[in-house]
Design a protein that fits this description.
This protein is 75% helix and 0% strand. The protein is built from 9 helices and no strands.
Length: 177
């Protein structure tokens, strides 16, 4: 519903405000008084908020910033899937097709009001870094995996769960092979 979009815009605005003014008070949002840690009752959308805040500060328009970040999320979905498929297949055409399909899957559009759930743009990058680490054994891929997993997880609690599943399955697959 439209209300969910407005809630997400408010959350991202609050995140930006809290990070700049008092980072330790992030979850002490100015809603649901007198409940403490009221942001913990909803998604925190922190990784998108960190991108949206400078845009909102420059434009003075948090709705524009939210829409811009959502748009960039679609592009990132396509690009990260392109990178994953390119690494696995070495075929640019297959990679391009996979990126387009992943970015514009109908699910993204049907639940766009829940942008923190639908735009799992870093998920393919998590899987790519897992493959690269196990293929090449470079520490930087493992560090990158941790940072990307953190960024994806800071989008929402759902993304924390969604990002954990492929990692666990990948590790089980590696142990069994």
């Amino acid at each position: 519903s439209r209300v969910d979009n407005l809630l997400n815009v408010w959350i991202m605005s609050w995140d930006g405000h809290a990070i700049i003014s008092s980072p330790t008070s992030l979850f002490q949002a100015n809603i649901n008084y007198p409940s403490p840690d009221s942001l913990a009752f909803s998604e925190h959308i922190l990784s998108f908020a960190l991108v949206a805040e400078p845009i909102a500060a420059v434009t003075g328009n948090p709705v524009f910033a939210y829409n811009f970040v959502a748009f960039i999320g679609f592009a990132l979905c396509g690009y990260t899937m392109y990178l994953l498929v390119k690494y696995l297949t070495r075929n640019r055409l297959a990679s391009l097709a996979a990126g387009i399909f992943f970015a514009f899957v109908p699910y993204h559009f049907s639940t766009i009001v829940h942008v923190h759930v639908t735009l799992y743009c870093l998920q393919p990058l998590i899987i790519l870094l897992l493959f690269k680490y196990f293929d090449e054994g470079r520490t930087r891929d493992l560090v990158g995996l941790g940072l990307v997993f953190l960024a994806q997880s800071l989008l929402s609690w759902y993304q924390l769960a969604f990002s954990s599943i492929p990692i666990v399955l990948f590790l089980i697959w590696q142990l069994l092979s």
